[in-house]
Write a structure and sequence with these properties.
3 domains, about 475 residues, binds protoporphyrin IX containing FE, single chain, binds fe (ii) ion, Cytochrome C Oxidase, Chain A
Length: about 475
């Protein structure tokens, strides 16, 4: 067991590379929010930036930046913990840095192309050079191939370090899961002009990422972080991790059926999707229990210092990770379960209800814990034993969480109105769609979403200022 190695206040090469990824992640997170605000204003004033920066582009950049910043933060977190878990330096650090710069240059080019070349007909050439047209994964084909190469380098680095160093349970789960996570990307890469087939495979990436491999990934992060932050026992967090792996893959893989209800796939998916996706919240509840259980344990601070359970090595990181437990449960578990049965989904499908779930789940299950990991990275970068939450840390977590929750509630109300008026009453045709969007409940909900979006953004500004200052201040206080 590696708990005796005292790496908690030391910097290492992997952790430094991780910080490079974290910086880009935060910049992209900011870009995501700005694009969301533009799209939200366009819901209220459809003429806003019309033909200069259309809704379709703002929305596309919003959700692609979301996926990319999260992948950056995941790679950063992996590099951050690699040396701690294996006991050795990352084997190919130079190659890792090269891959970072190649990826970052490619992402920059792709985003600039999205912003400057917005419209035109779709051809074979545009698939290669502009946009692949698959929601959340719109990178053009050249970038797709580049991403695969960069990810292979990353995976090789993690795998080779794991093979050479010590092999903890956390790392074993991570190695196996990363292979699945990266491999799934391939399912979204080939083109077919049959829209049902296209959607069928596209969901393999999106659903099997967020409801299986990403969940297991953040499970490994939570296990690692709980050991570091509150000195949780490795045997206990690892035991939970294995249980989650088992349950998530069980429910997550066949739960895929809840996206096959209305895309032209056979009807047996109704039963399969209903049953297995309804089971998906079970592991999410287990995860929730897991964090709270460890929280209450009489363990010392990180690395077994034994100062009692109230000592937390990193206040803001811990706060974000606890928010993750609640957020995952609420956004994925509760909001996901609401619309997962085909009897319900036939009414809610593609309404703002889906957007409410999308916001709350991506935020609750992923943004939260990744922000927590970035805070932990900062503590390591400044080699401080303890990093307490500042006023800015508290404002950031409060405003961002309150803002996203507010947006999700507003969108739920908008979705509810769509279900009742557009779907149930007016028969779900084209004119019903527009009629429902002009009713006061819908319009007001969209207004509240925009207001709560601004609250979220103010919280983000606090977050950035805090991240830029908290490490140095903690270092000075310690000295
Ligand atoms: C952290 C985990 C999750 C994330 C990040 C997530 C995210 C999303 C997103 C973004 C969409 C919209 C996709 C689109 O653009 O069409 C979606 C759809 C959906 N999600 Fe989740 N989800 C998660 C977990 C769950 C769980 C656990 C359930 C069920 C219990 C669930 C049920 C659904 C259903 C039924 C849809 C389809 C909605 C529709 O028909 O319009 N999700 N999810
Ligand atoms: C400033 C705050 C934000 C604003 C104003 C905002 C606004 C928007 C808008 C207008 C859309 C398009 C919805 C539609 O097509 O009906 C959207 C989609 C989406 N946003 Fe945000 N957003 C914000 C923050 C976030 C955050 C923090 C996350 C997650 C961490 C997120 C995740 C998503 C997802 C997953 C979708 C696609 C949902 C779907 O298709 O069902 N957004 N957002
Ligand atoms: Fe799903």
């Amino acid at each position: 067991m590696l708990t005796s190695i005292k790496t908690h206040s030391l910097t290492n090469k992997g952790q430094e590379l991780g910080m490079m990824y974290f910086r880009v992640a935060i910049i992209l997170f900011g870009a995501q929010l700005l694009m969301g605000l533009i799209a939200a204003i366009q819901f209220l004033a459809p003429g806003f930036l019309f033909e200069i920066f259309d809704f379709s582009v703002a929305r596309m950049v919003h959700i692609n930046a979301l996926v990319v910043w999260m992948l950056y933060a995941m790679i950063g977190s992996t590099y951050l913990m690699l040396t701690d878990e294996t006991g050795i330096e990352v084997v190919g650090i130079g190659l890792g840095k090269l891959a970072f710069w190649v990826l970052t240059a490619a992402v920059t080019v792709v985003v600039l192309v999205y912003i400057f070349i917005q419209i035109g007909s779709g051809t074979e050439a545009t698939i290669w050079f502009i946009n692949e047209g698959r929601e959340y994964l719109e990178a053009p084909r050249w970038a797709d191939i580049g991403i695969v190469v960069v990810v292979l380098i990353f995976y090789w680095n993690v795998f080779a370090t794991y093979m050479k160093g010590e092999r903890t349970g956390i790392m074993t789960v991570m190695i196996a899961n990363l292979m699945a996570l990266a491999g799934l990307y391939l399912a979204g890469m080939f083109f077919t002009d049959n829209i049902s087939m296209d959607q069928f495979w596209w969901w393999w990436v999106i659903h099997l990422w967020v409801e299986a491999t990403w969940e297991v990934f953040v499970g490994t992060l939570a296990a690692y972080a709980l050991i570091k932050l509150i000195g949780a026992k490795r045997e206990i967090v690892e035991m939970w991790l294995w249980i989650e792996v088992l349950m998530l893959f069980g429910s997550g893989i066949l739960g895929l059926g809840h996206h096959y209800f209305w895309i032209g796939t056979p009807e047996y998916w109704w039963e399969i999707g209903a049953l297995f996706s309804a089971l998906e919240p079970v592991p999410l509840i287990a995860m929730f229990v897991h964090v709270l259980y460890d929280w209450g344990k009489e363990q010392g601070v990180a690395e077994g210092k034994g100062e009692g359970k109230s000592v937390i090595a990193n206040g803001p990181a811990m706060a974000w990770i606890v928010t993750n437990a609640f957020g995952n449960f609420l956004g994925a578990g509760i909001w996901g379960f609401f619309h997962t049965l085909p009897q319900v989904n036939i009414y809610t499908h593609g309404t703002q209800f889906t957007a409410a779930h999308g916001h709350l789940s991506f935020f609750g299950a992923y943004a939260t814990i990744l922000i927590g990991m970035i805070y932990y990275g900062i503590q390591r970068a400044y080699s401080v034993e303890r990093m307490k939450a500042t006023f800015k840390s508290k404002m950031a977590i409060f405003l961002i969480t309150f803002g996203v929750l507010g947006m999700a509630i507003a969108l739920t109300i908008a979705g509810y109105e769509q279900v009742l008026v557009e779907r149930a009453e007016l028969g779900a045709d084209w004119s019903a769609f527009f009629a429902a969007q002009n009713l006061p409940w819908y319009v007001q909900a969209q207004l509240w979403r925009a207001i709560m979006g601004v609250v979220t953004f103010v919280g983000f500004v606090y977050l950035v200022i805090d991240m830029l200052t908290i490490g140095k201040n903690a270092q000075e206080a310690e000295a």
